Amino acid sequence: MYNLAGYLLANFCNLITANDITKEFGLKSVTTTQKFLNYLHEPYLFFYLQRFNNKLKAMKKAARKVYVVDNGFVSTTAFNISENLGRLLENQVFIELIRQGYDTEKTLFYYRSRNDKEVDFVTRQGIKVEKLIQVCYDLTSEKTRRREIDALIEVAGELKCQTLQIISYQHKEIIKEKGFTIQVIPFMDWVN
Fold it and tell me: Which of 109, 130, 100, 112 is nearest to 191 (CA)?
């Protein structure tokens, strides 16, 4: 279990599957792996975010993203070879969304488009997609900026959503493109 927790810490904000973890650790069954993952979730150490899909069966089969209850836990415990500022910011946004009352079973998801572009967070209100949120620590690179904007616009078209946000470390801007408005918000402004 300790090795599994270390693996999850090292892979926070990344996609995981019980099948992959079973193979990685040489465990006997996927059911056992799923039990261990649930044991680590029960005390709210780790959270697992499902991929949004209108079909429940497809949603349950897709890889989940793993998040950690506290960035300090990641910083002091996980084996990392870089600062991972983008992933730390994404994890912090996730924790704030949970604090705001979103539920990883009903109202908070991630999404991959038909062209495999990912949006970090999809929030729902009832049956309606409420907003799409990308997290990007630094938008100064044109390549990074393009990737984040293109993913939001593509997914907004697929999910019929007009509320689009990019949460950054300190960048603030309004982007208007292809009939969509994207609000870029510094994390400290968004959280307050």
Answer: 100
* 3-state secondary structure at position 74: helix
**Cα–Cα distance for residue pair 13/44, rounded to 1 Å:** 16
Q: What angle do CA 23, 89, 3 make, to 5 degrees?
A: 25
Predicted local distance difference test score (pLDDT) of residue 6: 87
Helix (H, G, I), strand (E, B) or coil at 75: helix
Q: 100: how many CB neighbours lie within 10 A of its CB? A: 11
Are the CB atoms for 66 and 46 separated by under 8 Å?
Answer: yes
- The H or E element containing residue 59 is helix 56-61
Instruction: Decide if 4 contacts 36 (C-beta within 8 A).
Output: yes
List, for residues 159-182, the tens digit of each pLDDT value.
999 999 999 999 999 999 999 999
How far from 117 is each of 5, 24, 136, 147, 179, CA to CA, in Å?
28, 26, 14, 8, 19
Q: Count the helix, strand and coil residues of the chain and give each as a percent rounded to the nearest 5.
A: 40, 25, 30
Q: DSSP state, 22?
A: H
